[in-house]
Design brief:
The protein is mainly alpha-helical and about 140 residues long. It has seven helices and three strands, in the order αααβααββαα. Strands 1-3-2 form a three-stranded antiparallel beta sheet. A hairpin with a 2-residue loop joins strand 2 and strand 3. Helix 3 packs across helix 5 and helix 3 packs antiparallel against helix 6. The protein is elongated and about 55 Å long. The two termini are about 30 Å apart.
């Protein structure tokens, strides 16, 4: 996704980690969260239908983008979900017909966030709750 980023060299990064217990703890918690997210994604990809997985992925992208419309190609989604591109086209078409998203040539627009959450599997909420638990943001009670 387009946007801005910061960059730091390895040596200054190591020095900052050694100097700051707060930074070190935050990065360790982030690493724990990332491992949980990778594990949940692997389980999700093995257990849930492509439409649910696509809804989950679009919710994650929507969270990161901070806006309703963002760049997202079917090709990229197919790589992220580990499926063939035509499968993404079929699943995205179903979500669009349900009025949850609109898409056209490399752009995705979330039109019904709550509906998209309902179409997603529980994995989205589990990962979101884990992020809040480890990194201190409020995301409500644990799922389930």
């Amino acid at each position: 996704m387009e946007g801005e980023a910061l960059r730091i060299g390895a040596a200054p990064f190591r020095a900052a980690m050694e100097e700051s217990a707060v930074l070190r703890a935050l990065l360790y918690r982030y690493a724990l969260f990332f491992q949980a997210q990778v594990t949940m994604t692997a389980a999700c990809n093995a257990r849930h239908a492509i439409e649910q997985r696509l809804a989950r992925w679009l919710l994650i992208a929507h969270d990161r983008a901070g806006v309703d419309e963002f760049p997202m190609t079917h090709e990229f989604i197919s790589m992220m979900l580990g499926v063939r591109r035509p499968g993404v086209t079929v699943a995205a078409g179903a979500l669009q017909r349900a009025g949850l998203v609109r898409y056209s040539r490399g752009r995705m627009d979330v039109t019904d966030r709550l509906g998209l959450e309902a179409a997603s599997c529980e994995c989205y909420h589990v990962v979101r709750w884990e992020f809040a638990r480890l990194l201190g943001t409020d995301s409500g009670p644990p799922p389930g």
